[in-house]
Amino acid sequence: MDKTIDLRSDTVTKPSPAMRQAMAAAEVGDDVFGEDPTVNRLQEKVAELLGKESALFVPSGTMGNEIAVKCHTRPGDEVICEAGCHIYNYESGAAPFLSGVQFRPIQGQRGVITADQVESAINPPPDHFPRTSLITLENTHNGAGGTVFPLNEMARLYTLAQNRNLKLHLDGARIWNASAASGVSVKECARCCDSISVCFSKGLGAPVGSAVAGSREFISEAHRLRKLFGGGMRQAGILAAAALYALEHNLDRLEEDHRNARFLAEVLANIPGIKLDIEAVQTNIIIFDVAETGRSVAEIVQRLKEKGVLVVPFGGTRIRAVTHLDVDQKDIERAVMVLQEVLY
Ligand SMILES: Cc1ncc(COP(=O)(O)O)c(C=O)c1O
Q: 252: CA distance to ligand 1 center in Å?
């Protein structure tokens, strides 16, 4: 029996034996007291990598984002975001629930919104209007198919935010992929925002963990909010060790995932009835539309599963496949054969 090729998400990776060894050997302490040396080492490394004053280890990307929303807003405020973004669509309504804010979603192009669009969505001073206090961006943009947010537009947006006294938070769950694809360093991206969240549990292959970074003042409040949200962990060095291992060993290989995604996408794009925006395949995510095959998403997902390839329905008639460090070129070649068998 061939191994199952799991392309549902880059979050499905399992820690390698070497990563597990690093976890087992981690020096630990009580992180709520700030005494876990491995967590402290990770936080210092992340702050340094991102060029921010400080960073905080958190259990998930969602918690990183939601801490940032809470820090930067007051209840009743409005948050400008791109319509397909994760914070708005896929965090179980956490921001309105935890921070009492509402969203002003703007339709972007492949996940990118412009400073002009945002400027016209900023509310006039209150009384009647919710106070606009925060802009959130996502790089890479999951819902748009792993697209990279151009640095020049981010810089324009950050200038606008500063001029209008707004904060800008970047959901950088896959900032590593954005940097690998564009050649723009994560530090340059992080320079264009007040806070950034990053994940170690996606393309980098750690089992758990994210970080949020920003000014010392922001992180001091983030530390309080992490406890309030139930994310204060104790001997979390075991998890931080996996994140450190991931940063040391798995950053340089992301290009391989991007090449695999591109190969898969090019084959898919040539299958009759499949609609795929090849320009959007910039990193490790492929989204394709099967409407014109005359078959349902459920049927296609099931037939692929029976043949050992897992993908996920991605809204309407779309399907998503994601490459990652637990699928190599050979696996992708087999996935391509299966896709051709099922879709032709
Ligand atoms: C862009 C983006 N941001 C945030 C998250 C949330 O991360 P987590 O699943 O660790 O909460 C995800 C998860 O896939 C994501 O794709």
A: 21
Q: Which residues line ligand 1 (CB under 6 A)?
A: 60-62, 65, 86, 138, 142, 171, 173, 199, 201, 210
Work out the burial of residue 165: count CB atoms within 10 Å of its CB; fewer than 13 is exposed, 13-18 middle, 19 or more buried: exposed
> How many Å apart are CA 292 and CA 273, to the nearest integer?
5
What is the mean pLDDT for each group of 10 consecutive residues in the chain (344 residues)? 92 98 98 96 98 98 98 98 98 98 98 98 92 98 98 98 98 98 98 98 97 98 97 98 98 98 97 96 98 96 98 97 97 96 93
CA-nearest residue for atom 16, ligand 1, is 142
Rounded to whole angstroms, how far apart are CA atoms 54 and 35?
16
Query: pTM for the full model?
Result: 0.98
